[in-house]
């Protein structure tokens, strides 16, 4: 039995989404609020080491992440020549466990989408709302409270609640 039954998570980046999934898995009703209307991710690619892969498995996101990513167990150094001559190949450590690759690379927006979908699937109690929590009193708003007068949310993701204003 969790000590709390309802939590507001502000920001649906990797940390916020992972937090929402873990809370939902414990039966906590989660409101995940995000200021950006679209699934956004800084940069194009992300390199995930063993500890991150282990956490993706704990979040129930590993099968999709594994299918979408490029896993590797060594680091190759190549010369900047036309043929990209291989200079050295350095084995990497499987720090997440023997059954996980040492490292995996994948597009950031894909990882963000996998985690958001997982949050939606984790519990019917989880909802994501696009809202700027910096508006009004400056305090985050909880689900059910009136929408902001100048909110910027425009999401049309069928998984998520969208609050516009
Ligand atoms: C160039 C670069 C390369 C990197 N490469 C790697 C890598 O290869 N491997 C790796 O593991 N890590 C990498 N990192 C680090 C990794 O990207 C970050 O640690 C991680 O994305 C942080 O996630 P987060 O959820 O804490 O924050 P963020 O991703 O910043 O998410 C915060 C979210 O909160 C929202 N938000 C903010 N304020 C509000 C508000 N008031 N109301 C509502 N929503 C709000 C934001 O819009 C955002 O979506 C890299 C970082 C950078 C900058």
Which descriptors apply to this entry?
three-stranded antiparallel sheet, alpha/beta
Strand percentage: 15-25%
Order of SSEs, N→C?
Answer: EHEEHHEEEEHE
Please name the fourth-level CATH homologous superfamily of the domain at 6-69 and 107-132.
FAD/NAD(P)-binding domain
Question: Roughly what percent helix?
Answer: 25-40%
Going across the major beta sheet, what is the strand order? 1-2-8
What is the CATH topology classification name of the domain at 6-69 and 107-132? FAD/NAD(P)-binding domain
Q: Low-confidence parts, pLDDT < 50 over ≥5 residues?
A: 135-156
Query: Quick check: average pLDDT?
Result: 81
Radius of gyration: 19 Å
- Secondary structural class: alpha/beta
Give a quick account of the main beta sheet: strands, pairing sense, barrel closure.
3 strands, parallel
Shape: elongated
Distance between the termini: 36 Å
Question: What is the highest CATH level, the class of the domain at 6-69 and 107-132?
Answer: Alpha Beta
Figure out the total of helices: 4
What hetero molecules are in the model? flavin-adenine dinucleotide
So, CATH architecture of the domain at 6-69 and 107-132?
A: 3-Layer(bba) Sandwich
Report what the structure shows:
- By secondary structure, this protein is an alpha/beta fold.
- It has a domain at 6-69 and 107-132: FAD/NAD(P)-binding domain.
- It is 26% helix and 24% strand.
- The protein is built from four helices and eight strands, in the order E-H-E-E-H-H-E-E-E-E-H-E.
- Strands 1-2-8 form a three-stranded parallel β-sheet, with helices on one face. Strands 3-7-4 form a three-stranded antiparallel β-sheet.
- The two termini are 36 Å apart.
- Mean pLDDT is 81; it is low at 135-156.
- Flavin-adenine dinucleotide (FAD) binds at residues 10-16, 33-36, 42-43, 46-48, 52, 132-134.
